[in-house]
Task: structure prediction
Amino acid sequence: MDALVIQGGNPLSGEVRISGAKNAALPILTACLLTAEPLKLGNVPHLKDISTMLALLGHMGVRVTLDDRNQVTLSGESIPHKEAPYEMVKTMRAAILVLGPTLARFGDARVSLPGGCAIGSRPVDLHIKGLQAMGAEINIEHGYIHARCKRLKGARILMDMVTVTGTENLMMAAALADGTTVLENAAREPEVVDLARCLVAMGAQIEGAGSDVITIHGVEKLHGADYSVMPDRIETGTFLVAAAMTGGRVRVTHTQPDTLDAVIAKLREAGAAVETGPDWIEIESDGTLTAVDVRTAPHPAFPTDMQAQFMALNCIAEGAASVSETIFENRFMHVQELRRLGANIEVSGYTALVRGVPRLDGATVMATDLRASASLVLAGLVAAGETTIERIYHLDRGYERIEEKLTQLGARIKRVH
Ligand code: UD1
Result:
């Protein structure tokens, strides 16, 4: 298994190019199931979760080709296997995203129940309830969700909780339904908007994406399209925090600053100077930061996927701050590992109180989930001496060439087998 070894203490400086967004690319890839025509996608990041999704789509019968300009073309002319098997769903929960489009186009889909995962129980009941409201008959059998219908019917669906992939699944299903669907309390995440734009390019009729009420007028057929995936706001945020913590000056390019308002506001509050342009963000800090309170909530509030990184920032900031996680239970697994590096963190329920310490010390730590791993890399970049991060396959699920990009900015980091 691979590990990352970091020698801490180097300020980051220079320019880094942001990759396509994992969480936008995953649903957009599954949109190919809605049409018999080819869907051509650019800016798809090279990540483990993306290859898992491509393998799943390939297993279902989609023809996947990659051209020399790194464009992925997906042709779902016929889909002989309308099923997402357990082996694939257990490694990547986003596999649930094939349910809505497959059911809507073919009237039949089987997807393994995801089961537990490292950051909480994460049920998919809202995906199921929404499809039932649209007329699907759903049975849970042998650990699988089996959904059937003639043609889905438009419905008014009020979701109990804000769910990102739930909104995406139902939006794709509704695109081919008979009549109009209104999703209330829909997720407003930028990735939902990106998927809606791709669906509209494929001929869907969608209004309100980006607000909490999305209206979808179902059409009989969708066609192919050529679409480029939005930049990754979480990768962007992670590099910004890295620059702030190490006391550097970094320009992130090919990004979308307006998707990061809450993160940029917190970085400024912590004392970093941040400037933005149309597709770039520049950050400068002398490494002296003030601890900032953070409370995660659905977009446009502070993203749960940046919680662990700000926990790392607070570990070396002046003062104390609270970090509250309101989206996922059990998303504080990085706390134990950060403590191994000398952090002072107390957890009480959904809130962690972080008291800044003058310095962290390198140690061997273990990555437990994707964003927790990112927080350990950030801590390693400022810790005195050497930090070894084990089990970095979590990191490879969501960060493209992270050690190369950090090296280019002056970090001393290497991958060892
Ligand atoms: C997506 C993101 C993930 C991010 C999360 C929250 C992808 C591929 N992943 O995950 O990176 O951390 O949004 O921004 O886009 N819930 C239910 N029932 C459901 C669905 C969700 O109770 O049917 C609960 C979950 O357990 C969780 C909350 O709703 O507590 C939000 O989850 P959700 O937005 O669905 O997360 P994902 O879409 O899985």
In short: The longest strand covers residues 3-7. The longest helix spans residues 233-246. The CA atoms of residues 361 and 384 lie 5 Å apart.
